[in-house]
Amino acid sequence: MNIDGFKKKDGGDYMKKLLTALVVGAMLLSGCSSNSGDGSSKYDTSVYKDYYIAGTDYETLNYLSTSKAVDLRTITQFVDGLTENNQYGQIVGALAKNWEANEDFTVWTFHLREGVKWVDWEGKEVGEVKADDFVYAAEYILNPKNASNQTVMYSAVKGANDYFDALDEGGTANFSSVGVKALDDYTVEYTMEAPTPYFISITLYAAYCPVSREFVASIAPSGELTSEQLFGTDNKHILYCGPWLFTVDEKDSRREYTKNPTYWDLDNIHFDKVETIAIADQDTAWNYFQQGDISYASVSLTQYEAHKDENYIVQLMPGEYAYQIFLNSDTSYSTDTNAAVKNEAFRLSIRYGWDYEAYAAFQNAMDPASIIASGYVIPGLVTAPNGTDYADLGSLKDYTNKGFLDVDKAQEYKEKAMSELTGVTFPIVINYYVKTGNETAMQTAETIKDFLENNLGTDYIEIAIKEYASSHTQEVLKTKLNGLSISGWGADYADPINILETMKSDGYMNSEFSHFTAEDLGEYDALIEKANAETTDIQKRYELFAEAEAYLLDHAFITPVMQASSANYLRVTTVNEFERPYSQCGTTKTKIKGFTLNNAPVTTADYNKALEEWKTKREKLMTTEGEWVMED
User: Fold this and answer.
1) What distance separates the 2 farthest-apart alpha carbons in the chain?
2) Which of 146, 153, 151, 116 is nearest to 131 (CA)?
3) Which residues of 483-513 are buried (b: 16+ CB within 10 A; e: fewer)?
4) Beta strands in 291-450 (DSSP E)
5) Residue pair 562/364 in contact by the 8 Å Cβ criterion
């Protein structure tokens, strides 16, 4: 992204200050390990060695209830859905070998593979995957007693909302009124409320994975927990039809997956097993990688500064999350802060006072400008029928390739806000929370404090860095102690509604972080409803959504800061990265399938060559009409 012309105050070169300060720390951390990329370490190509940061282990394996990425990244290894992504991002058959839709995309019919086995965690066969398993998955999710967070994934299905509401209100309902039917043992049909051409991308989500009705019923109740509530509580309370069996589960320490010998696509599983360990932090990951104990490692800003001249750090492709600044308009700690956040000029002053490049450097020190986000819906998620990327439609194109840092404008909006916020005491205190002991997060927070207070003035704003012990959700968000948060929403399926509805007055992200009311967001709510009602003219649908998103950005209810994934952009790796499943939505993109390993770190040159080859092939495939239908 071109950020030429960004204005900074004299002495406000935060990137230079930050990187200079980190060089010393990087040298201390790197020790004598600068030759770690020479291939001298032995990397086992038959075992994929993964890792996660301690304290971020999965919470449940109930793939029909959870919507948390950390859970779904785990469960996708064990249970397949109707569809999945191949390495180029095409939607291909998984448990469905093929499918078709009627002319107006209101009826979708999936033909299942025959002979796919359900097995337990030890690999013992207990049944066959059949169409009723998909029907029961819908029944489970749409039953309020099961408290699923995935009901929204069935909102397009005929009768689903009415069925859920009837049960939720204490009444009775017959599931036969819902548009999910098993036509026979190997054919499942979904009927929509309205034309839904993007439904095939919805099937990438875990809500469209099967579950055995008989297995759930066989789980013995325990205490006050029912069979349904016990489903997915550990590796023994699920069945497996995916590539891996969860054979070792030592919570927040170590996991081991064993290859499922009955898997329908065994030829695309290239490891004997998967070993996953919990480690302290990203800097520790670097050392584990050097020793051959993990197959890849994200590269922190500190590590990049120590090793940037070596030839094996690679830059990943843009991630699936557009991270935003969320300001809290209903904090529990300051009515002055609440009044300020309700003020549009105040929100815009933060937008123009934010140093986007300095913040992005923590994810991508090699090229921070390239990952600065321009909107809430990421580029490339959907393309309009006229060939225009959604992110370039209407007023949204004004945000594309446009950086916001402009200290002069920040000062103008500061003066406007201070004149409008009569009765408010300045400076406005904005709490920013980091986890205790997370040094990278603390460095990020200090950088934010530095550039916002410098660009806006400590007479106007104070960034108060706070710490939480273990749970950001419970300790900070639930108590409304957050002033400024940075988070993103990854698309579950390929339509703008899935992202944009989260910032409606009753939307998930607004309710979690910002708490703007219907009075604040009434016009935005109406724009979203208008766009979502357009189901036949897709060009018009996308243009209406673009109008709604532009309104959200124009009034700074959110401010895009960075496009990223859950991992840093920079990586050292033995993985042939372009053999992985690729997608910008759904839950199959993290599946450990299809790719192979090298016995030495991949060089930067080899990675870049493979990237160009991948882009060329993907471009050819994505311009072929009907490519999403792939039959055996």
Assistant:
1) 72
2) 116
3) bbbbebbbbbbbbbbbbbbbbbbebebbebb
4) 296-298, 314-315, 321-327, 428-435
5) no
CATH label, 76-232, candidates 3.40.50.10610, 3.40.50.150, 3.40.50.10240, 3.90.76.10: 3.90.76.10
The token duo for 416 is 């406007």
CATH 3.90.76.10: which residues of the chain?
Answer: 76-232
41/287 Cα distance (integer angstroms): 12
Q: How far apart are CA 499 and CA 493, in angstroms?
A: 9
Q: How many CA atoms lie within 13 A of 279 on its CB side?
A: 20
Distance CA 92, CA 102 (A): 19
Taking the C-alpha atoms of residue 254 and residue 368, their distance in angstroms, rounded to an integer, is 33
Where in the chain are all domains bearing CATH 3.10.105.10?
A: 14-21+319-564
Give the predicted TM-score (pTM) of the model: 0.82
Per-residue pLDDT tens digits for 2-55:
222 223 333 345 444 444 444 333 333 333 333 344 444 579 999 999 999 887
Structure tokens belonging to residue 382? 């959907």
Please write the tens of the pLDDT for every residue from 259-287: 999 999 999 999 999 999 999 877 788 99
Contact 45, 598 (CB under 8 A): yes
Q: How far apart are alpha carbons 338 and 332 in whole angstroms?
A: 9
CATH homologous superfamily for 14-21+319-564? Dipeptide-binding Protein; Domain 3 (3.10.105.10)
Which pLDDT tens digit goes with each residue over 517-570? 999 999 999 999 999 999 889 999 999 999 999 999 999 999 999 887 766 688
* Residue in this structure with the two tokens 């243009």, named with its chain if needed: 543
**What does the alpha-carbon distance between residue 222 and residue 230 come to, in Å, rounded to a whole number?**
8
